[in-house]
Q: What sequence folds into this?
């Protein structure tokens, strides 16, 4: 009876030490998995409804919200790292509004210029920016002139 217990102990000891001898599993590079931290960086530069220039950074593929007025045209600069230069860019609106721009690729300085023209209806307008290796979502919140507070920006009081 002593042999099976010792044998089992030896098997257990070997079982726990073998994975340590095997080669570690390589972790994928950040650019290999879109929308992960560090998967890509994007800074959005635009003017909000109050006339203030905002600099918003994409985190996990999502850019902070920009509050604008109904029927406002917003000039937007997308600033990518310069190593993205020449990559194709697709920009589309999910909830309405018009997007115009003349660059289907990232410029040599890492920039893409476009104009977002909001609709007249208050609410959230989402815009998706896609590169071959990453995706980002911008949010424009059109305020209601009758109720100008953005419900997502209310204080917890």
A:
């Amino acid at each position: 009876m002593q042999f099976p217990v010792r044998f089992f102990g030896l098997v257990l000891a070997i079982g726990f030490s073998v994975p340590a001898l095997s080669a570690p599993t390589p972790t994928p590079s950040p650019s290999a998995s879109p929308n992960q931290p560090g998967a890509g960086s994007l800074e959005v530069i635009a003017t909000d409804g109050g006339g203030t220039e905002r600099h918003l950074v994409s985190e996990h593929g999502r850019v902070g919200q920009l509050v604008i007025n109904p029927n406002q045209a917003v000039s937007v600069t997308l600033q990518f790292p310069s190593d993205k230069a020449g990559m194709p860019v697709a920009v589309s609106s999910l909830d309405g509004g018009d997007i115009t721009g003349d660059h289907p690729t990232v410029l040599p300085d890492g920039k893409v210029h476009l104009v977002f023209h909001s609709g007249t209806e208050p609410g959230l307008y989402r815009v998706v920016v896609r590169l071959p290796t990453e995706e980002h979502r911008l949010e424009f919140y059109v305020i209601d002139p009758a109720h100008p507070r953005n419900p997502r920006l209310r204080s917890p009081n």
About this structure: DSSP finds one helix and nine strands in the chain.
